[in-house]
Design goal:
seven-stranded mixed beta sheet, about 375 residues, about 40% helix, three-stranded antiparallel beta sheet, 2 domains, 12 strands, Aspartate Aminotransferase, domain 2, about 15% strand, alpha/beta, binds pyridoxal-5'-phosphate, Aspartate Aminotransferase, domain 1, globular, 12 helices
Length: about 375
């Protein structure tokens, strides 16, 4: 068996042998589970999205989609007060991030990122051979911008942060983001705003001022379209041009016809967006109070999830107990955060189910 796997690995290129792929949260095939483990929106997308997708499915699936996804580009540009050439689209923001890492961070010197952040960043770095320098979050798991300065002038490849951060949910003030941009004016600062619509401060308004700023958004979270795979990056046209070069060296059609149509409709139904994101934020406030009632410490969240720890009970044991009671949450077995649970904010009914299950788990563990 060993010999066999050595043989099999000999087919792999060296970089693939060294890869450590990202492990997404579980997508269980079992019905009836309360799924609070992958930060999906608990509400469905706007009915207008479904209608647009249905129409698109009836018209021209035999034809390739628009390689520029012009309609969606224009819609997003208008929504954020930008020009279409300041918007880049991809098959989920994960793909946009990957192209961004490839386009901007391969300088042979380290990319700076928080020690605790979206774990996909380190996966891309391995894929593309980008050295990483992690910068520790503070004791309270906040980002310390001053720690990103390099007074000795040592070269860095750029900076990537998530704001609000994942998996902590903690947001960074815009002034601090600006400080980062000014620390490294000759390198790209990539700000991943996957969760910004749940109460964070977006850096979109800084794009005109900062040629090194790239802001990445997704329709997976606040627009309830994780299943459709749409993400985008905004920045000055020279940055978008670099992303286009990478994309057009990889896949001309990352967005299919259904995604383009559904994406446009999602931005056209602003009322649905406001209603659902407000519902999530309001559930979050209730969930935080309920968790605190159990004695859990909850980090301040500007996202559609909370990051919480119990003062005495083991997080892995709590997660296992919740799972046994039909509730999925995410536990990361990683340094500094292994006693935390990341709990996505569900509907009020899902949050109630979590609270009931947690009461039962904690009673059983005590
Ligand atoms: C969910 C998430 C993404 C990925 O979003 P997709 O558009 O679904 O690929 C990117 N960054 C962070 C921080 C996320 O949590």
């Amino acid at each position: 068996m060993k010999q066999n796997s050595d043989l099999n690995a000999s087919f792999y290129s060296p970089v693939v042998r060294r890869l450590v792929p990202y492990v997404p949260g579980e997508q269980p095939k079992i019905d009836g589970l309360v799924k609070l483990n992958t930060n999906e929106n608990p509400y469905p997308p706007s009915p207008r999205v479904l209608a647009a997708i249905q129409l698109a499915a009836q018209q021209g699936l035999q034809l390739y989609p628009d390689p520029e996804a012009t309609a969606l580009r224009q819609t997003i540009a208008a929504h954020h007060g930008l020009e279409p050439q300041q918007v880049f689209l991809g098959n989920g923001s994960d793909e946009v991030l990957a192209h961004g890492f490839f386009a901007f961070f391969q300088h042979g010197c380290p990319l700076l990122m928080p020690d605790i952040s979206y774990s996909f960043y380190q996966v891309y770095c391995r894929l593309y051979g980008i050295p990483v320098e992690t910068v520790p979050l503070t004791e309270s798991l906040c980002l310390d911008v001053a720690a990103y300065a390099r007074a000795d002038g040592t070269a860095i490849a750029g900076v990537v942060i998530a704001n609000p951060n994942a998996p902590t949910g903690v947001g960074l003030a815009l002034q601090q983001v600006e400080q980062l941009l000014r620390l490294h004016p000759r390198r790209v600062v990539l700000v991943d705003e996957a969760y910004v619509d749940f109460g964070g401060d977006s850096a979109m308004g800084l794009i005109a001022q900062y040629p090194n700023l790239l802001v990445v958004h997704t329709l997976s979270k606040s627009r309830s379209l994780a299943g459709l795979r749409i993400g985008f990056a905004c920045g000055q046209a020279h940055l978008i041009e670099a992303l286009e070069r990478v994309k057009n060296s990889f896949n001309s059609y990352p967005l299919d016809r259904l995604a383009i149509a559904g994406g446009v409709a999602a931005f056209e139904d602003q009322a649905w967006f406001e209603q659902t994101r407000r519902a999530v934020m309001s559930s979050r406030e209730g969930l935080v109070l309920a968790l605190e009632d159990f004695g859990l410490q909850v980090l301040p969240s500007q996202a559609n999830f909370v990051f919480a720890r119990h003062p005495t009970q083991d997080a892995a044991a709590i997660a296992a107990g919740l799972r046994a009671r039909g509730v999925l949450v995410r536990h990361f077995k990683l340094p500094r955060i292994e006693q935390y649970l990341r709990i996505s904010v569900g509907t009020p009914a899902q949050c109630d189910a979590l609270v009931q299950a947690l009461a039962s788990v904690l009673a059983a563990l005590a």
